[in-house]
Task: inverse folding
């Protein structure tokens, strides 16, 4: 599989529309390569976009949200945008739920989780684990969070995001900072 399959079409109704259509198609192609370059650059991203549809726009929004979250923002608006392009994008919905909980929007997070649960039968094994993790964070169930993060790491060993959340659930939430740092040291050094 050393080839790229990418489909996108547009209707041109006349010569005047042609430049705008070409720009839009070029943006989609550039977006495709941007998404794939982002995946190659950060191994921790692969798990999160594996369940995405062919919607490049959804994946771009997700990557933007991921960067916002890594840089200390909520990423919620970008995740909502990703879902507007692809309502079946499980990882975007998991992260969106997390951003809603950070803003104390519990009812909306529960509604998003209801949607997520309806997609569970179509999800792969790693995505099903993350769906269960989303339920655990809504319920603030530390044991279930830890169990699901450890299980998710079986699918994505060394995933910086999972490792960080696991360290937080296991140690930081209990004030055990030295243990959290010791757990994250190999991950930090690898980055």
Result:
């Amino acid at each position: 599989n050393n080839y790229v399959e990418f489909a996108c079409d547009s209707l041109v109704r006349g010569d005047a529309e042609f430049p705008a259509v070409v720009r839009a198609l070029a943006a989609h192609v550039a977006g495709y390569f941007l998404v794939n370059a982002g995946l190659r650059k950060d191994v921790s991203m692969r798990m999160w976009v594996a369940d995405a549809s062919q919607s490049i726009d959804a994946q771009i929004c997700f990557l933007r949200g991921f960067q916002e979250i890594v840089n200390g923002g909520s990423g919620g608006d970008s995740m909502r945008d990703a879902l507007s392009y692809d309502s079946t994008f499980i990882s975007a919905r998991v992260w969106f739920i997390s951003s809603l909980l950070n803003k104390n929007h519990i009812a909306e997070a529960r509604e998003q989780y209801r949607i997520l649960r309806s997609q569970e039968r179509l999800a792969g094994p790693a995505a099903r684990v993350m769906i269960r993790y989303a339920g655990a964070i809504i319920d603030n169930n530390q044991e279930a969070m830890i169990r699901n993060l450890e299980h998710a790491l079986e699918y994505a060993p060394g995933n910086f995001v999972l490792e960080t959340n696991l360290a937080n659930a296991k140690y930081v939430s209990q004030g055990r900072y030295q243990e959290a740092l010791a757990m994250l040291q190999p991950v930090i050094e690898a980055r």
Observations:
- Confidence is low (pLDDT under 50) at residues 1-5.
